Amino acid sequence: MTFKFEMMPLHIEPNADVLIHTVANWMVDVIADTLKQQDRFTIALSGGNTPKSLHVLLASDAYRHKIDWAKLHFFFGDERFVPFNDERNNAKMAFDTLLNHVPVKPEQIHVMQTENTSPEASAMSYETILHTYFDGKPFGFDLVLLGMGDDGHTLSLFPGTEVIDETKKWATHLWLEAQQMYRITLTAPIVNQSAQVAFLTTGANKAQALKAVLEGTKQVHQYPSQIIQPKGGLHWFTDAAAAALLTPTL
Q: Whole-model pTM above 0.90?
């Protein structure tokens, strides 16, 4: 079911399985409509269990042939600074569940490098790629898929981190003390240039944060997901458990 929540589409489904089908159908339409106007479609993927299930669905016989994969250019919203073969690596998950199973051109997949480089150099290199694609364009990404943590973070924009305040860099690195790990991440300035941003949020553990992000006062350092306000469209796709505390109106 789709609601209008402060003029923003809020799609609420009974469970995560129904939700990923809703997202997949929506993506098929967005990609097809965009490719009627231009010759490529740029998309940034995210990590997490819900995107993983979405990837598997998109690579299935039911959806694989509904998308012109040769025209898609893939990017990543953020990455843990661990080797590619590490199970925590977002790019590895995307290859295992989607990119190895659809006819996408390898040169159109842009991973965040995490080997034989430094976190700072990796972020700088990724930013160079982004400028090559998007400088002078009316929008940045055609679609950014995002998740939200139960603390309200998205990408690697964690509560209380300085990266939330970034206004110039499109990609940067940070040390996350809680995880004892460097991370590479896109920033709000480039994500907010997107034509479409879609948050995928499931589970009762997200309910309190979702209510705070959508209904609470703006506190981006406490709930960084609030800083994502794209110049194009913003959609929230959530299951009933995550949306249990919301008060949307038709």
A: yes
